[in-house]
Amino acid sequence: TGSPVCGNNVIDMYGAYSYCTNLTGPAISGDNVTNMHWTYENCTNLTGSPVCGPNVTNMGGTYANCTNLTGSPVCGENVTSMYNTYAYCTNLTGSPVCGNNVINMRGTYANCINLTGSPVCGENVTNMYMTYLNCTNLTGSPVCGNNVIDMWSAYQNCYNLTGSPACGENVTNMYGTYRNCFNLYGNAYFYSNKIGNMCNCFVGRDFSNALNIYIPTNSITLNTCLCNNSSSLIGANITWNVGYSTNGFYYNTEYNIYIYPVNSVADAYESNENSSGSSKDVDLRDFTYNKIGETYVLTGWNETLDGKANTKMVTPDDNSVILLLE
Fold first, then answer.
1. What is the mean pLDDT of residues 257-281?
2. Cβ distance 155 to 129 under 8 Å?
3. How far apart are CA 171 and CA 280, in angstroms?
4. Residue 274: band (very low, low, confident or very high) from pLDDT cuts 50, 70, 90
5. What is the C-alpha to C-alpha distance for residues 177 and 164, in angstroms, rounded to an integer?
6. pTM
7. b/e map of 186-196 (b: 16 or more CB within 10 Å)?
8. Backbone phi, then psi, for 313, in 5-degree steps?
9. Closest CA to 74 of 40, 124, 42, 23
10. Minimum mean pLDDT among 165-179, 188-202, 280-294: which range?
11. Which of 13, 197, 219, 273 could lock 39 by a disulfide, CB 3.0 to 4.6 Å apart?
12. Direct distance between the N- and C-terminal alpha carbons of the chain, in angstroms, rounded to an integer
């Protein structure tokens, strides 16, 4: 019982108070401590806010299952591992943090159901396996650093996450990444050309909103996206229709998903997000529509244009029409 202690010369606190379920009071960490691996694991009656000494490099499982820990998460500037650091800290509040030197974010905030604010990912992170799993009150837009390789269920069940899905250029695994993220839509830019697993990635999405995914042409990612069986990105059989543009595009109106292979995802981002003006040539993918037989009934834009625009629409049968949009 009582509060934890740590001497000034302590370097290693590996498992120091692990499973001390009757330990109360606030956590501590000495200035010279470098290892806090499993230090307070399953200290279910530990209260107060988490701490991390300035020289700590390993926070693997430091506060895992400290269900009465409150306050905001912390991460020292020298930390490289946040493996399961705050997993199941169900009363932790505030916004997630990640130091610039962190490499491993596997399960860092898994089941932190009261964590709020926007997700973060350090520039050196390679592992986002279940990083924000079941963070149901997390808001803002998803992020993914350029060095991330594994995004397995990274944001699964983040019901209140908004904005567009993200994917860095080195990602290979997106199994269940955005499962049950109801409010993700718009333009998504998947920079990686080597994603081999996207099973269940978008199961549970609100399909009333269009999702446009830009990916490298002639890539493993494209082949994975076009999987049409139970291993598909919606976890069920899906039929992809073929549209016509420079590199072709693929769409399914039932799930409101449009896949656009492009030569440069970065250029597509620049063109779509940083373009200006109200008049432009577009093709069918810029519209929401219903197809009745061979007739396309336009229901709106997939993007916003200011004011009026004389706009050319190229339909899949290569016939062109001029529209006046208000």
1. 77
2. no
3. 33
4. confident
5. 13
6. 0.84
7. bbbbbbbbebe
8. -115, 125
9. 40
10. 280-294
11. 13
12. 70
Query: How many beta carbons lie within 10 A of that of residue 79, not counting itself?
Result: 29
Q: Residue 293: is its pLDDT beyond 50?
A: yes
Q: Are 128 and 106 in contact (CB under 8 A)?
A: yes
Please write the tens of the pLDDT for every residue from 8-52. Answer: 999 999 999 999 999 998 999 999 999 999 999 999 999 999 999
| Torsion angle in degrees (nearest 10) through CA of 307, 183, 252, 155 | 140
Any residues with CB less than 8 A from the CB of 125 and at least 6 apart, and which? Answer: 98, 102, 103, 104, 105, 145, 147, 148
Q: What is the mean pLDDT of residues 263-290?
A: 68
For residue 124, the SS3 value is coil
- C-alpha–C-alpha distance, residues 100 and 78, integer Å: 8
Place of tokens 């370097």: 11
Instruction: With cut-offs at 50, 70 and 90, classify the pLDDT of residue 275.
Output: low
- Virtual torsion, Cα 283, 286, 292, 295, nearest 10 deg: -30
Q: What share of the chain is helix, strand, coil (3-state, %, to 5)?
A: 5, 20, 75
- The CA distance from 193 to 258, in Å, is 17
| Amino acid identity, position 250 | Y
Indicate the residue type of 20: C
Tokens of 325: 């949009």
Q: Is 305 exposed, middle or buried (0-12, 13-18, 19+ CB in 10 A)?
A: middle
Query: Residue 115: pLDDT above 80?
Result: yes
Percent pLDDT > 70 in the chain is 83
CB-based burial, 48-77: b 16+ in 10 Å, e otherwise: bebbbbebbbbbbbbbbbbbebbbebbbbe
Q: How far is CA 115 from CA 26, 41, 48, in A?
A: 19, 19, 15
pLDDT for the residue numbered 294:
57
Asked if 19 and 41 count as a contact pair (C-beta separation under 8 A), the reply is yes
pLDDT over 80 at 254, yes or no: yes
